[in-house]
Amino acid sequence: ARYFNIQFKDTLDRWSVVQTDSFFRTPVPLAAFSADTTSFCDSGTVAFNNLSFDTDIYQWNFGDGNTSTDSTPVHTYTTPGTYTVTLLATDTLMNLQDDTVQAAFITVNVLPTVTASASDDTLCAGQSTTLSAGGNATGYSWSGGITNNQSFVPGSSQMYVLTGSNGICSNQDS
After folding, report:
1. pTM for this predicted structure
2. Which of 92, 130, 147, 164 could form a disulfide with 114 if both were Cys (CB 3.0 to 4.6 A apart)?
3. 76-85, 103-112, 123-132, 162-171: the lowest-pLDDT one
């Protein structure tokens, strides 16, 4: 308990007698959290930061069918999609609970498929080939300044890497 003194001044500018009283603060739990990352490509691991106070038991729902009772869990998302995360925090001393729901909190973006192909895989010195990009990416680029679907004479033992992007994520093939 905490003690405090109260004194009032009336309309005639006179002070009252000092009154001493006490109060007891009832802790009310508050559930809150953040994460080290909320968006990534294909799959990824998220470290959750528990910002709750006046709580001692935690129940997490990661929105993908997985749960945890850790105070500060680390969770891996393996399937592209958007996930709502819920934290239920409990103060067992006062038997009180609070929850917070962060809708569409985690986004796992789709990794584009990228397929590199050549018109000829085995070449003799001086022969030309054509590199082609395939997959579901919205944009492609070749290493070495190669232009897609144009014939060229490659350097000896040269490997060319195709990068494809969907505007958010990128993937490679060679």
Report:
1. 0.77
2. 164
3. 123-132
Question: 123 has which bridge partners?
Answer: none
Residue 75, CA distances (Å) to 44, 45, 68, 71, 84 in order = 8, 6, 9, 12, 13
In whole angstroms, give the CA distance from residue 174 to residue 153. 17
